Amino acid sequence: MFIIIHSLVTSVSLTVLESQNTTMHFVTEFVLLGFPGQREMQNFFFSFILVVYLLTLLGNGIIVCIVKWDKRLHTPMYIFLGNFAFLEIWYISSTIPNMLVNILSETKTISFTGCFLQFYFFFSLGTTECFFLSVMAYDRYLAICRPLHYPSIMTGKLCVILVCVCWVSGFLCYPVPIVLISQLPFCGPNIIDHFVCDPGPLFALACIPAPSTELICYTFNSLIIFGPFLSILGSYTLVLRAVLRVPSGAGRTKAFSTCGSHLMVVSLFYGTLMVMYVSPTSGNPTGMQKIITLVYSAVTPLLNPLIYSLRNKDMKDALKRVLGLRTNQK
């Protein structure tokens, strides 16, 4: 009902605008400014982002292949990790290729439809990542706090269900906000001072104020960020309490190392998300917004395979086995 009322209000406002200016022109494309500067600086950004993108594809691709080929890693923990790495490949691919093309482009334009498609996939994949981080924290909670019951609780069937829920629910969260934003009138200017189609700059370009749509978007963002984050915080609070009860120092060290990599990813990812999206009135400068977005959209996917692989003995051993097997087969 709220959405219907909002659509009616938007239609009435649009009619009023059209009656005031019959020659109003509605934009069919946007201009993504990206990182403006001299050509030398543009070339530096292009080279840096290209290297980050290729290394991210390589690192996460290796994790996906290792989990797929090594049957010893066909356990819930590594199935989640393999899906998470696969997700990161698509997450960074939703923005970086267009960003690279945009740097080389003279016009730096993106179509109206292309802008909202990028918006949808970027935020849907980011939402899916939030859900996967929460599920992976729950898996570590079961493994450490309830080790005897872990095999009977985290069965293969439950693992598959959780993976499917993360993927499906992640892509079902954002259609409503995106449809509402796309229905707003954009009659110029069409310049977005960012390298992605983000809701903040899009609201700023709308010809009429849309407080109800902004409220819906920020409510969605807050729920998506704080829901999984509180779940993760609860899981690791219980894990910490259980670890502190372990009598041996070696046992505590092993338990902490198991969860340390996950906590590093969570801290980096959620820290930047909260700075960027929790408060609509945060007043971050445009340059700072770009840097923050670049951190959680490009740097975090790059660091994930390094954090998980270099700190995980099973992953390193599996990589050696897979490389040795492939070498012997040749």
From TrEMBL:
It is a multi-pass membrane protein. Keywords: Cell membrane, Disulfide bond, G-protein coupled receptor, Glycoprotein, Membrane, Olfaction, Receptor, Sensory transduction, Transducer, Transmembrane, Transmembrane helix. The keyword Glycoprotein applies. One of its GO terms (cellular component) is plasma membrane. InterPro entries: GPCR_Rhodpsn, GPCR_Rhodpsn_7TM, Olfact_rcpt, Olfactory_GPCR1. The chain crosses the membrane at residues 43-66, 78-96, 116-138, 158-180, 223-244, 256-279, 291-310. One of its GO terms (molecular function) is olfactory receptor activity. It is found in: Cell membrane. Residues 59-308 form the G-protein coupled receptors family 1 profile domain. Belongs to the G-protein coupled receptor 1 family. Putative odorant or sperm cell receptor. PANTHER family: G-PROTEIN COUPLED RECEPTOR, OLFACTORY RECEPTOR 11H6. This is Olfactory receptor.
